[in-house]
Design a protein that fits this description.
The chain is about 30% helix and about 25% strand. Helix 4 packs across helix 5. The chain contains 10 helices and 15 strands. By secondary structure, the chain is an alpha/beta fold.
Length: about 325
Amino acid sequence: MKAVVYEEYGPPEVLQLRELETPTPRDDEVLIRIGAVTVNTGDCELRRPEIPNTIWFLIRLFFGFRKPRKRILGAYFAGEIEAVGRDVEQFQVRDRVFAGSGPRFGAYAEYICLPGSHPIAAKPANMNHAEAAAVPLGGINALHYLRKAKIRSGEKVLINGAGGSFGTFAVQLAKLMGAEVTAVDSTEKLELLRELGADHVIDYTREDFTENGETYDVIFNVVVKASYARILRSLNKGGRYLLTNPAGIFQMLRAIWTSMTGNKQVIVQFAPETAEDLDYLRELIEAGKLRSVIDRSYPLEQAAEAHRYVETGRKQGNVVLTINPPG
């Protein structure tokens, strides 16, 4: 099979297309022929020799200090079941599915093996592989945090960094929950955010939402560099701050202290991937209530170019590698 591997940390050029042996599923596994896989900021951070916060030590401890232990990146994909282990009963050959591979990664490849018990769900019937590949990352995370916020109809929700993988799903899901949504991002993304249903948009290149006097019931912050203290001041009493990218252990501890001692809650949690949540998102998609935003698609052999584009920070929604199109 063809796969993109990297043997060392560095610039996008370290990503190389190689011919590898196609994996064989064990008795409890399925072999999935990958149709498309997302290229996201997390992939780029793992490829580079630096992580942008003080959690870098734990990341490198798991993924390798001097060279990567996981040679194939890619964790969120859609595809088709190619083979089924004899102990797997819930899937059949030719089932179209979407999933996240978790810390295994390995989806920048034509095939991947996962346990049959892994969170894998039927792909939305009205999405192609590229569109469906975007859902397990942005959709699952946005759904997880917004549910934790327990949003009530009519509450004011601000999404900072609304034009990316998480944010484009968060805008749509918050509207479905009855919120009044303000979306913050750069100039070129504002029209897309209006199309997704945002009631208000703010161009962060011209205005700092933490200094305009407005306050919100929920602030969903996808941007690492946003000021923790200023965001708290922009929350109403009883407000919830959804912090998806804490800038290190100190900020995580600060979030716990804020929630324990103040009248505002800071929510810092990793979103678990479950088949139930994927099925819920699939139902919304098939009902026409939720959609993926795909900015650009690249063939597998152009993975390095896809990384370069993601690192510009200009992507709207998602970037994907198409591997075994169409479908």
